């Protein structure tokens, strides 16, 4: 008989977890589709999607089936051996994108770390060891390793951890002239999110993205797109770069890739991959069969015309509901983003209230996100039901009434 489980509550968090998060006051214990229940049995509608991760909702039957089947077959063998789920997932990602080669990791930061190292390594091998400059953007977010917080454009995340990796320069997002002013032949890469997620749900303009591609070509630099949040159907296309008519050199993806199971990938071309050799980079869990089997099941569902078209239809429903709330409360200065990555920027008179709205929404039974202090962010399941959208928005309306 299994031992009885120890009782834990939200206050246990404050005693046992490193205090780097401030989670909501309830503890979710169960999820199904776009609904979640807490320890007290209270039900929530989930517009947060685990921060753009649970793209097929909670406990999607196809993902549960892949987890159970692979879980009873083979979990882990290390990269001393390869495995079928990793080979299948890589083949399908390649078939669906510009890429020829895949590296698997376990988190967005790890995929980005691999991308930045590859960009430097490629430039060093093909051009010169002095071609190491990385151009990145204010407010960008690329993860929490020391290299990725340093490429990220929010110094509060990288200050205080000692010397940072050098030769990284930040300029304003969507400002092509600013990039022109700093790019040169010592630049190895421009790193950019097609839609800045954590930084406020701001899409790159087409002219900016196309301009970055041209500047990279002129200076033999790589265009590295961080699609950790924008990828895997979130934007209404499998990857957001497809909206821009540009071909990147490297993309990274994570969050929705495993639908809630930790897995990430870096995708690139044969030419760029050719500088790599056994031992140059690696990670113990990368390409783990259990993770890859679940990601393969997620990709098979997300990369279909029905699901991708459904993202755009659902966006319209969300935006219409947000506009109705705006008409009632005179709240938003802009509703932005792409597909089901939605940002609703608060008007100046409501500045700083995003977190209060998140908390009031949780109390009314709807889970939402923020991006900074002034933007409400929604990243729901790509297959959320219309009824869940309506019910969640009704709850959000009651929460706004409380706060305003
Ligand atoms: C979440 C995120 C990351 C970091 O991913 P982790 O899995 O937390 O390491 C990197 N880039 C972007 C754009 C993200 O949204």
Short description:
By secondary structure, this protein is of the alpha/beta class. It contains 13 helices and 17 strands. The chain folds into 2 domains: 10-59 and 305-403, Alpha-Beta Complex (Aspartate Aminotransferase, domain 1), CATH 3.90.1150; 74-302, Aspartate Aminotransferase, domain 2 (3-Layer(aba) Sandwich), CATH 3.40.640.
Structural descriptors:
404 residues, alpha/beta, Aspartate Aminotransferase, domain 1, Aspartate Aminotransferase, domain 2, 2 domains, 7-stranded mixed beta sheet, 4-stranded mixed beta sheet, 17 strands, 38% helix, 18% strand, globular, binds pyridoxal-5'-phosphate
Report the radius of gyration as a whole number of Å: 21 Å
Largest sheet: 7 strands, mixed
How many alpha or pi helices?
A: 13
Uncertain segments: none
Task: Using the alpha-carbon principal axes, give the shape.
Answer: globular
- Strand-pairing-aware structural class: alpha/beta
Average pLDDT confidence is 97
Tell me which CATH architecture of the largest domain applies here.
3-Layer(aba) Sandwich
CATH topology of the largest domain: Aspartate Aminotransferase, domain 2
Distinct ligands: pyridoxal-5'-phosphate
């Amino acid at each position: 008989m299994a031992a009885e489980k120890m009782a834990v509550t939200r206050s246990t968090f404050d005693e046992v977890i490193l205090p780097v998060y401030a989670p909501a006051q309830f503890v979710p214990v169960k999820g199904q589709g776009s609904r979640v229940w807490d320890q007290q049995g209270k039900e929530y509608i989930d517009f947060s999607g685990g921060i753009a991760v649970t793209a097929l909702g909670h406990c999607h039957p196809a993902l549960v089936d892949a987890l159970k089947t692979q879980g009873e077959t083979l979990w882990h063998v290390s990269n001393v051996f390869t495995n079928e789920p990793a080979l299948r997932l890589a083949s399908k990602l390649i078939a669906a994108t510009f890429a020829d080669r895949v590296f698997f990791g376990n988190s967005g930061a790890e995929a980005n770390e691999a991308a930045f190292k590859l960009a430097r390594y490629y430039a060093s091998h093909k051009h010169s060891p002095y071609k190491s400059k990385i151009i990145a953007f204010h407010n960008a977010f690329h993860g929490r390793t020391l290299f990725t917080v340093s490429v990220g454009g929010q110094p509060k995340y990288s200050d205080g951890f000692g010397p940072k990796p050098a030769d990284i320069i930040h300029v304003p997002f969507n400002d092509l002239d600013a990039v022109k002013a700093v790019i040169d032949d010592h630049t190895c890469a421009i790193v950019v999110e097609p839609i800045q997620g954590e930084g406020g749900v701001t899409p790159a303009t087409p002219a900016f993205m196309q301009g970055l591609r041209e500047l990279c070509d002129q200076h033999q630099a790589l265009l590295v797109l961080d699609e950790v949040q924008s990828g895997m159907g979130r934007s209404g296309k499998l990857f957001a770069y497809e909206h821009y008519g540009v071909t990147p050199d490297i993309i990274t993806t994570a969050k929705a890739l495993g639908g809630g199971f930790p897995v990430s990938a870096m995708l690139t071309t044969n030419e760029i991959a050719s500088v790599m050799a056994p031992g140059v980079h690696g990670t113990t869990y990368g390409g783990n069969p259990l993770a890859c089997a679940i990601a393969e099941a997620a990709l098979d569902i997300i990369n279909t015309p029905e699901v991708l078209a459904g993202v755009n239809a659902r966006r319209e429903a969300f935006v219409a509901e947000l506009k109705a709330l705006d008409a009632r409360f005179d709240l938003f200065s802009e509703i932005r983003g792409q597909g089901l990555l939605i940002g609703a920027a608060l008007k100046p008179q409501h500045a700083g209230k995003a977190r209060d709205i998140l908390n009031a929404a949780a109390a009314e039974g709807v889970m939402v996100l923020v991006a900074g202090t002034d933007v409400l962010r929604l990243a729901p399941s790509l297959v959320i039901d219309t009824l869940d959208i309506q019910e969640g928005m009704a709850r959000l309306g009651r929460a706004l009434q409380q706060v305003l």
